[in-house]
Each structure stands twice: as structure tokens, then as C-alpha cells.
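Anyone up for a design puzzle?
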């Protein structure tokens, strides 16, 4: 009997070596803005690993903003610190592509062969293309919307059921709300951080950042002048104070701001932070030119960085899962971003019923036909260009420069930062 047990033990050892467990592929993933995305990333990665037990997701330290995120990736490119996968702001895909940092996803898409059936239409794929190259897959996409405190609107004599549809109406309402006193501000317009909200005004007027040849600035033309004049009027007539991004958010959720303009991606956090303090509503952002006006597409794309062939296959699985219908069904309710996957948007298995039951989320969804790419400046000075625009916007908000002076100075500085042919 003892000999028999020894034979069984030996056979078990032999089988262990003969049928090894499948090797685990570990992917290091980096993402920005943990305030928006930490819970979303945790949920998506957990579900992905349940369905793909041979792949393990670990997270690098997240970056506070898109700008910090791109600078981190540019520093780490080609080093052992570089993550296998990252999520990059849509307006910075051009910058990393010019350095040949991302993996071209075109061959993966060609091999896959059924992207449209998975909800990735041509229009959605184009959001993360640079000069025809598939640099990533759009993960979280947003547009700017209007948030408003219906209680303050009523007190100021407005009708919450019919929110302002033009900038003239917004500014007039903001002035009335400001006049209520008690530390209440009329408007919070999220101009800080990057050029996205300025783009909302500029594109909404039918304008563009650079001329078609990208050699000269175009944002200081008639459309840009109208855009920056609206910002100036918000300050002078609408009750827009000088606040940091964080202070503006805190003031709005505390019930001290009547109307706020920022990304739909902040909606879930805003709902949570407002709680029952006041009657929160959302609506479309006005367009200076309601016929030709467009809106910038904010958000980010999942980008593969690793050059290891085995990891690339695993990373492609993760990228498709994160940007696919399940990922979108987590991102939209968990943040407020609009769905970047058509299957997720239309299917009752994912988000179709969600929008019926959650009217605050509809403003961003209904604006999707107006969305165009968030402009990506050419060359290596993209971050400096953005900082230059923001610094000159701050001069208008602080009333230390006229709109004309700030716009002309921004144009001159940006033009000096553009690449020379």
C-alpha cells in the first residue's frame, strides 16, 4: 500500500510538470484624473480579469490632469518606467504620435475584422486617429454642457423648465442671480486648465484654432473675437467671479452659483456632491452661431505603448474591452461622459434604458451630433500653447486686459510656438 501511494504521488508530480499552468501576462496601466476615473477603472479592470484570467491589470500612479499625464508619458517613453497601456487626452494624441510613441492599432483592427459589429463605427474610430493612423480607441468622450441651480433660477425670476438658449439670455440670468446677494455668484465658466472651454466658445461661433495650413493662428479672427467678448461679458454683466477650478466646483455644489459650464464628464460627481441641497438641472450649452456652431470633443483614448508582442495582444484585448460596450456602460453612469460606442448607446442591455431613467444625462447625449475633434496643435509645444491661451483668458477674467489685448497677445505668443517648416 505504501508503495502504491508513492507511485500516485510521483504520478501527480509528473502531471504537474507535464501540464503547466498558463503563464500570466501582467499589464501596467496608467490613467489621468482619478477623481473621475478611479472607480471606473477599478470596475472595468475587475470585470476584464474575471473574463480573462490569464491577464492581470496593475495600475501605475494616476496623473491629476491630462496635461500632467502627457508630460509623464513623454518623460517615460522608451524607459523601463513606461506603462504598457495609457489613457491620453484626445488633443494630445498628435503629440505622442509625432514622437512615434504609440503602437499603430491599424493591424489589430484589420486582423479583428468586425469592429463595427462591436459598436466601433468609422466615426468613433476617427476620434482617436492622427493623419489616418489609429493611435488609440476613444474611451471616454464628452462635450460641454450647462448645469444650473433651478432654485436660484426661480428666485431670480427665471423659468427652470425653459433654461437659457443664447449667451445673451445666460448673461442676463447670471446678472439677476448675482443680484440676489448673500454671496451668490451668477456664472461659473470652466476656463482654467486647458483650452477646451475656450474651444466651446470658438467652435460654437464657427471658428477654428489655426488656418488650414496650420502655419498661422486663426482663433483671433471674427469668431474668436465674439468668443472672448462673451467671456468678458460673463464677468462684467453675468456675475462670473475669479475662482480656481476647484473653488468654482465647490461653490456650485454648495448652492452659491446659479449657472455653471463644464464637461458632462463631471456630472456624476456633481450629482453626488449636490445631494439634496438644491434642484439640479442640466441643458445644452448655447452656441454663438446656432447654425454653424460645433462643440469640442473632450475626453481620452486608450493607447497601447508596449513593444512586447505578447503584451500587445493582451493590451489589445483590454483596450477593446475598456472602450467597448461594457466599458461604456460603466463610464457613462459612473462619470457623465457620453458613450463612444454605438452598441452601448443603443442597446437596452447597456445604456438605452439608463438614459430614459436619468434625464440629467441627456444634455450631453443630445449634443453628440455637434461634436468635432478637440483641436491638437502641431509640434512639441502643445502644452505651452495651451498654457498661453489659459494665461490670456485669465487676464480677461481678472479684468487686467481687454478682450482684444488678450486675444492679440495669445495669438502672437502661440504663433511663435508653432513649428517652422
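Challenge accepted. My sequence:
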Amino acid at each position: 500500500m505504501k508503495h502504491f501511494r508513492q507511485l500516485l504521488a510521483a504520478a501527480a508530480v509528473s502531471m504537474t510538470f507535464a501540464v503547466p499552468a498558463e503563464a500570466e501576462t501582467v499589464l501596467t496601466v496608467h490613467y489621468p484624473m482619478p477623481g473621475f476615473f478611479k472607480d471606473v477603472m477599478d470596475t472595468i479592470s475587475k470585470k476584464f480579469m474575471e473574463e480573462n484570467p490569464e491577464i492581470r491589470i496593475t495600475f501605475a500612479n494616476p496623473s491629476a490632469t491630462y496635461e500632467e499625464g502627457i508630460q509623464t508619458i513623454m518623460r517615460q517613453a522608451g524607459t523601463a518606467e513606461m506603462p504598457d497601456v495609457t489613457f491620453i487626452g484626445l488633443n494630445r494624441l498628435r503629440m505622442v504620435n509625432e514622437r512615434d510613441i504609440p503602437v499603430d492599432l491599424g493591424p489589430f483592427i484589420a486582423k479583428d475584422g468586425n469592429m463595427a459589429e462591436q459598436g466601433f463605427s468609422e466615426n468613433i474610430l476617427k476620434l482617436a486617429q492622427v493623419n489616418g493612423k489609429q493611435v488609440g480607441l476613444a474611451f471616454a468622450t464628452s462635450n460641454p454642457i450647462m448645469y444650473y441651480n433651478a432654485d436660484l433660477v426661480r428666485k431670480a425670476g427665471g423659468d427652470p423648465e425653459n433654461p437659457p438658449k443664447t449667451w445673451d439670455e445666460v448673461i442676463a440670468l447670471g446678472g439677476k442671480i448675482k443680484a440676489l446677494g448673500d454671496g451668490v455668484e451668477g456664472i461659473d465658466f470652466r476656463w482654467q486648465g486647458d483650452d477646451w472651454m475656450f474651444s466651446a466658445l470658438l467652435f460654437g461661433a464657427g471658428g477654428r484654432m489655426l488656418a488650414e495650413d496650420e502655419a498661422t493662428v486663426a482663433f483671433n479672427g471674427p469668431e474668436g473675437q465674439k468668443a472672448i467678448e462673451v467671456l468678458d461679458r460673463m464677468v462684467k454683466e453675468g456675475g462670473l467671479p475669479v475662482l480656481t477650478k476647484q473653488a468654482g466646483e465647490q461653490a456650485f455644489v454648495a448652492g452659491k452659483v446659479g449657472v455653471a459650464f463644464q464637461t458632462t464628464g463631471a456630472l456624476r460627481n456633481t450629482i453626488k456632491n449636490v445631494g439634496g441641497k438644491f434642484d439640479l438641472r442640466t441643458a445644452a450649452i448655447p452656441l454663438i452661431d446656432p447654425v454653424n456652431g460645433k462643440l469640442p470633443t473632450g475626453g481620452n483614448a486608450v493607447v497601447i505603448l508596449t513593444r512586447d508582442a505578447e503584451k500587445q495582444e493582451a493590451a489589445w484585448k483590454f483596450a477593446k474591452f475598456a472602450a467597448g460596450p461594457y466599458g461604456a456602460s460603466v463610464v457613462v453612469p459612473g462619470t457623465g461622459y457620453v458613450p463612444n460606442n454605438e452598441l452601448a448607446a443603443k442597446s437596452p442591455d447597456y445604456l438605452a434604458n439608463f438614459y430614459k431613467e436619468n434625464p440629467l444625462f441627456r444634455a450631453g447625449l443630445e449634443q453628440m451630433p455637434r461634436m468635432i475633434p478637440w483641436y491638437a496643435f502641431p509640434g512639441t509645444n502643445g502644452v505651452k500653447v495651451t498654457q498661453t491661451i489659459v494665461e490670456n483668458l485669465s487676464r480677461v477674467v481678472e479684468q487686467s486686459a481687454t478682450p482684444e489685448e488678450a486675444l492679440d497677445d495669445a495669438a502672437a505668443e502661440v504663433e511663435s510656438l508653432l513649428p517652422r517648416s
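A detail worth pointing out: The two ends are 86 Å apart (CA to CA).
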